[in-house]
Amino acid sequence: MRRITQTAEARAMAHGTTEKAATPEETLPPDIETMRASARRALTENAELPTPDELDTLVLVLRGHIHLLVPEVERAAARQPEDSIPRYCALACLGEAHNKLRLGDGGGLPIRVSVVRKLARVVNALCDHYENLGGDHPRTGQ
Question: Residues with Cβ < 8 Å from 124, sequence gap 6 or more?
Answer without folding.
Answer: 36, 39, 43
